[in-house]
Write a structure and sequence with these properties.
Layout lengths: L6 E4 L3 H11 L4 E7 L5 E8 L2 E7 L11 E6 L2 H12 L4 E2 L4 E3 L5 E6 H7 L4 H12 L6 H9 L2
Parallel strand pairs: 1-4, 5-8
Antiparallel strand pairs: 2-3, 3-4, 6-7, 7-8
Helix pairs in contact: 3-5, 4-5
Length: 152
């Protein structure tokens, strides 16, 4: 068992959210569901690409917010598009600079590896152009980052 496992508080939709997340991420699986006396899910366990999670149905007292987000490293624009579209579908919301919220209220950062590579350039002019371009985006567009880097 891993020492640290993200534990997510849901109102009533932990099982639905778990199934949604497992359907999106490769190498993912449902671990289990414990049910209360009413037969409804109380806790759920699952893995997303090898990362363990636990979800709890505990009522509406607490909501997710931007202070905690799931960071998804993407290889290329196709992966960015896939995760962005899947996570913002059916009531999710786009935000700025690679951030989006899914229909359950959980925040995600969908980030192509190229962002870090281009922003990490030792030339401060190039890296600033990339940062300025990124700050104007919602979903990150790799080609637009590259244009900014190239000064186009």
């Amino acid at each position: 068992m891993k020492k640290i496992t993200p534990f997510l508080w849901f109102d009533t939709q932990a099982e639905e959210a778990m199934n949604f997340y497992v359907s999106i991420f490769k190498n993912s699986k449902v671990g289990g569901v414990s049910r209360g006396p009413d037969g409804k899910a109380f806790t759920v366990s699952f893995e997303l690409d090898g990362q363990e999670f636990v979800g709890l149905n505990a009522g509406p007292q607490f909501k997710f917010n931007e202070a905690v987000s799931m960071f998804v490293n993407c290889e290329d624009q196709a992966e960015v598009d896939y995760f962005w579209n899947a996570l913002t579908a059916d009531g999710g919301e786009e935000s700025m600079c690679s951030w989006c919220k899914d229909k359950y209220g959980l925040w995600w950062q969908i980030v192509p590896k190229q962002l870090g590579e281009l922003m990490g350039d030792p030339d401060p002019v190039k890296s600033k152009r990339v940062m300025d371009a990124m700050l104007k985006m919602k979903k990150i567009i790799v080609a637009d980052l590259q244009k900014a880097y190239d000064g186009k």
